[in-house]
Write a structure and sequence with these properties.
This protein has 2 helices and 4 strands. With about 80 residues, it is of the alpha+beta class. It has one domain (about 5-40, about 50-80): 2-Layer Sandwich (Translation Initiation Factor IF3), CATH 3.30.110.40. Strands 1-2-4-3 form a 4-stranded mixed sheet, with helices on one face. The longest helix has 11 residues, at about 20-30. Pfam families: TusA (PF01206). Keywords: Transferase. Belongs to the sulfur carrier protein TusA family. GO terms for molecular function: transferase activity.
Length: about 80
């Protein structure tokens, strides 16, 4: 969906090696401390990460701006929504 070099981000979360639900929980914690409109890059290796992050953004005010997968690492770029 996006080449990593094309997406800017304000914060970075390395969730590689963590399994569900930890990548989402850590993402929620990071987003809580960010300002609306800021972007977060998350890297995860959980095979269910794509489904989890799409569902999380569908049910929240946060936007999944882009995602990518390379060599078993999923990279997500999220924009913090209101709240």
């Amino acid at each position: 969906m996006a080449a990593e070099s094309q997406v800017d981000y304000d914060q970075d979360l390395d969730a590689r090696g963590l399994n569900c639900p930890l990548p989402i929980l850590r993402t929620k914690q990071m987003l809580r401390d960010m300002t609306e409109g800021e972007s977060l890059r998350v890297r995860a290796t959980d095979p269910h990460a794509l489904i989890d992050f799409q569902g999380f953004c569908d049910r929240s005010a946060h936007e999944l701006v882009a995602y990518d997968e390379a060599e078993g690492v999923f990279t997500f770029w999220l924009r913090k929504g209101p709240g």
